[in-house]
């Protein structure tokens, strides 16, 4: 447990809190039938802890249960072919990014990859993946907030309006980010 606590970054905690806030807003909407952002600020410490708990829980569920299915889909052979056909990132943009990372590592544009470049690439790829996972988790948090209320109140799920739109936006944004990152990795990490 101690190793886990020391490995948790501030960035992860912030992403978890934001996802948890989406969970709480969606749940609040399901309870009241209206959007009430101010009600969450009534008890800031309690709200932050609940948001953190909900966000970390959603991250855990996403990474262990949901994302493996998305990842399986992403590495499926026909999807890899489709990613070459619809890359969502141009080869030129990938080359620009690759050159930026090379400069950051202090490596020339025509030099073989070295360990410094691999470290820079890994850092940027991990950061990009963090954002994609944040977008996915935000979508799941919105859905889970409404679902939790419907199961505890024994009511039909209220998931419409701005939350349904945000769910779609976050899920599509995560999917597109993931798609682009995989295409970028294929281009950058093999040059």
Q: What is the topological layout?
A:
Blueprint: H1 2-7, H2 10-32, H3 44-75, H4 77-85, H5 91-105, H6 115-152, H7 162-188
What attributes characterize this protein structure?
191 residues; 0% strand
Question: What's a quick, concise take on this entry?
Answer:
The protein has helices at 2-7, 10-32, 44-75, 77-85, 91-105, 115-152, 162-188.
Would you write up a description of this structure?
This protein is an all-alpha fold. It has one domain. It is 79% helix and 0% strand. The protein contains seven helices and no strands. Helix 6 runs antiparallel to helix 7. The model has no long low-confidence stretch (mean pLDDT 84).
């Amino acid at each position: 447990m101690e190793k886990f606590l020391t490995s948790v970054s501030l960035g992860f905690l912030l992403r978890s809190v934001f996802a948890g806030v989406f969970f709480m807003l969606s749940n609040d909407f399901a309870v009241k039938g209206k959007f009430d952002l101010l009600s969450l600020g009534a008890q800031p410490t309690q709200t932050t802890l609940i948001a953190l708990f909900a966000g970390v829980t959603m991250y855990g569920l996403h990474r262990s249960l949901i994302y493996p299915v998305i990842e399986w889909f992403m590495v499926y052979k026909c999807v890899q072919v489709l990613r070459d056909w619809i890359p969502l990132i141009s080869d030129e943009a990938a080359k620009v990014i690759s050159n930026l990372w090379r400069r950051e590592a202090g490596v020339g544009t025509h030099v073989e990859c070295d360990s410094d470049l691999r470290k820079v690439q890994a850092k940027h790829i991990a950061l990009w993946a963090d954002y994609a996972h944040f977008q996915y988790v935000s979508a799941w948090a919105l859905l889970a907030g409404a679902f939790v209320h419907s199961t505890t109140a024994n009511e039909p799920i209220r998931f419409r309006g701005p939350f349904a739109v945000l769910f779609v936006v976050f899920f599509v944004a995560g999917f597109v980010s993931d798609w682009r990152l995989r295409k970028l990795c294929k281009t950058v990490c093999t040059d």
